[in-house]
Amino acid sequence: MITQYYLATKVRMKGMADSLARETWLTSWELIRITIPVTIATKILEELGLIGYLSAILEPVMAVIGLPGPLGLVWATAILTNIYGGIAVFAALAPGLDLTGAQVTVLCSAILIAHSLPIELSVSKRAGASLVPIALIRLIGAVVYAFLLNRICLAFDLWQNPAVMFFKASAHSVDLFQWGLDQLQNLGMIVFIIFCIVVCMRLLRVLGILDLLERMLAPVLPIFGMGRQAAPLTVVGMIMGIGYGGALIIRETSTGKLDKAEVFNSMALMGLCHGLVEDTLIMAAIGGKLGGILWGRIVFSLIVTYLLVTVMRSLAGRRIRRQA
Question: What are 15-70's pLDDT values in tens digits?
Fold first, then answer.
């Protein structure tokens, strides 16, 4: 009897380990195929002395949110590719910038609000939300939130200690072989971070914490212009990401159950605040503080969405009165 129980437990543990390894590899492969070319491109730009020129172009925006100019390249990469592309550039540039915990949190917050725009905006458009307004909401929202967060951190002396860097950068005089070894170490660190996140996501599902988050958010969302049909779908997108929530919105839109206003409100809120678990854990793993990248982001997103809904309802009311 004991032997059978032992064997059954061993089989379950092996199945769980295989599943974790498979999920880690699938996620890591998405990272690797983006990170390697991005890292090489960043090195080429650095060797040609072009990083300084690109930083100068992006420096005005970075200065507004209290960050060094070179970090603009990190955010721009995340906007055009995804979070992992931004991390690849961050790993190459950040160790030499003497960043504080607050600065890393501000950068992470901006990335969380505005990243993967080519893909995620196409999802929003397919769902029925106008592309340009959603893009502006995300880009302007990211700058405004990063600006406010930076001012709050300075005013209250939050997270002003030197940031803890998980990535390695060699001196500029080392040869390409040593540089390559450093990048492999950085890549290994990122893969390890992904493994830890996969484990955390499994635990959160088993413990029912994800379900609890869904139940907490669903009753609140009707205040922000979403009915009973749209609210649960929006919660899924907020927690799991636009890819999940957007796909559900697209399916429901095709059935005619959601009106255009609901879809727009849903995609606006999801654009500002999505991937609350996985994306937040990734940013926390590279030094972002939860107060800024999670709680502050949620509050900011809900306030902005409420203001948008209020303004649009007011404009719609004026239009109706004029027509009457």
Answer: 777 777 777 777 667 667 766 776 777 778 767 777 667 667 788 889 999 999 98
**CA dist., res. 144 & res. 142, Å (int):** 6
The domain total for the chain is 1
- Give the domain range for residue 18: 2-160+174-323
Is residue 169 scored above 80 in pLDDT? no
39 part of a folded domain: yes
Residue 168 within a domain = no
Considering the domain boundaries, does residue 169 fall inside one? no
- pLDDT at residue 117, rounded to an integer: 87
**Rounded Cα gap, residues 194 and 192, in angstroms:** 5
pLDDT in tens, 291-322: 999 999 999 999 999 999 898 888 877 777 77
Residue 6 covered by a domain: yes
Q: Could you tell me the pTM of the whole model?
A: 0.80
